[in-house]
Amino acid sequence: MINKLGLNQIKNINYNLIFFVNLAFCIFPLSYILGNMAINLNILIFCVLSIIHLKKKIFNLKPDLFLKIVIIFFLIVFLSTILANIKIFQLEGIENTDIESLVKSVLFFRFLVLIIMVYLLNNYGSINFKYFFYSAAFFSIIVSLDIIFQYIFGYNVWGLEGDIQGKYSGAFGKEKIAGAFIERFSFFAIFLFFYFFHKKENLNLFITSGVIYILSLGLLFAGNRMQLVLFALGVFLTLVIFKKLRKIIIFSLTIFIISGFLILSNDKNIKDNYYSFYLNSKYILVEFYDNIKKFTINKRTNQTLNETPKSVRVLSGHKYVFMSAIDTWKLNKTFGGGIKSFRRDCGKILAVRGVDRMCSNHPHQYYLEILTETGVVGFIFFIITILFFLKHGLRFILTWKNQINEKNMILLACIVSLGLEFFPIRSAGSFFSTNSATFIFLTTSIIMALKNKPSS
Predict the structure, then answer these.
(1) Among the listed residues 183, 204, 182, the one whose alpha carbon sits nearest the alpha carbon of residue 194
(2) Whether 118 contacts 438, CB under 8 Å
(3) DSSP letters along 88-145, please?
(4) pTM greater than the 0.90 cutoff
(5) Could you report the per-residue pLDDT of 353-390, keeping only the tens digit for each?
(6) Residue 221 neighbours by CB distance under 10 Å
(7) What is the DSSP letter of 170?
(8) What is the pLDDT of residues 384-425, one digit of tens each?
(9) Which value, to the nearest 10 degrees, does the dihedral of the CA atoms of residues 374, 380, 383, 384 take?
C-alpha cells in the first residue's frame, strides 16, 4: 500500500513537471513581447525544469549528425572568442582584453542546452509542440490587432501612443521590432487556422483569409519594411508548395493590396517610410548592376574598378557596414574575432580607411556576422547546418503530399519561418542577440525533433 502511494506520488510529480515544462516552452512568444530579460528567464526556467524531469536520462543523449554539427558550431564560437582574446592579451595587454565577449561566449551555450533539452524531451515523449503552435499563432494575431488599433486610434490597448514616422510598435513601445515579431510567428497562425477549418472550405476561406489580412495589415503599420517583404516571400513560397492554400492566399492578398494602396495614398508618413525603402533597394540594385558591368569591361581592358558615384552611395548605408564586416573578417580570417567582436574591430577599420566604411554594433547580416566573428571555420559549419536544414526542409516539402495534420502544419510553419530568417539577401539583427538566437534555435530544435517523427 505504501509502495503504491509512493509510486502515485512520483507519477503525479512527473505529470506536474511535464505540464510546467510544456508551459515554459509554449509561452516563449509571450516572453518576446515582455523583453529580453523575460526571454532569458524563460530559457532558464525551461532548461532547469527539463533537467529536473529528465534526470539521469540526460546522460543517454545520442545526438544525430544534425545535432553533432550544431554542437561543433557552438564550440567553434567559444573557441574563436578564446583565441581572439589570447591574441589581444599578447598584443595589447590584459587591460584591453574583451571580458564581455568571453562572458557572452559562455552564456551563448544556453541555446545549446535549450536545443538538447528539446531533443531529449521529444525522444522521451515529454513535450507537445502543439501548445507552442497555438501560442505563436495567438500572440502574432494579438500583436497585429493591437498595432491596427494603435494606427486607427493613435494609441494601443495599453495606452501607448503610435509613432508619427510611419511606424507603429504596439506593445513593444519604443522598440520598433513589432514587424519582426509578426513576421517570425505569422506562419504559425496561418497554418493553425487552416488546419482547424480545412474540412469546411467556405468557412476556411473566410477565416484564414482574415488571419492573413490581419497579419499583413499589422506588418504594414509596424513599418519594418524588410519584414513585410519577407512575409510576402513566405506567402509566395506557401502558395507554390501548398496548393490547398492557394485560393485563400490569392483572395486575402487581393484585399490587402487594394486596401494597402488606399492607405499609402492617404497616409504620407507610411508612404514615405516605404518609398525610402523602395529607393534604397532600387539604388542598391542599380549599383550592383553597374559594378558587374564595370567589372566585365575592366576585366577585358585590365583597368581597375571605378568608384561608385557619391549620390548613389548616400542612399545605401547598409553597404558600408557590409564592407566594414569584410574588412574586419580579414583581420582574423580563420577563426574570426570572437562573439560580439565586430563593434570592437570595426573601429580599427574606420580609423585606417573612413571613406566608404561604416560601423555598427553588428554587421546587420547573419552570414557576414558569422564570417566576421567565427572566421572561415565557423562559417563552414554554419553553412553545413543551413544545408542540413535545407535538405530536411526540401525532403519534407517533396514528400508530404499536402497531408493536413498537426505535425505537418507545425513543421511547415517552422520550415518557412526559419527559411525566411536565413534568406541571404536581407538585412537582419545580430545572430548572437537574445531575440534572434532564441527564435532561430527554438525553430531549429522543433525541426530536429519532428523531422524523423511519423505523422499522426
Answers:
(1) 204
(2) no
(3) HHHHH-GGG--HHHHHHHHHTHHHHHHHHHHHHHHHTT---THHHHHHHHHHHHHHHH
(4) no
(5) 666 777 778 888 899 999 999 999 999 989 998 888 88
(6) 28
(7) G
(8) 988 888 888 888 877 776 788 899 899 999 999 999 999 988
(9) -130
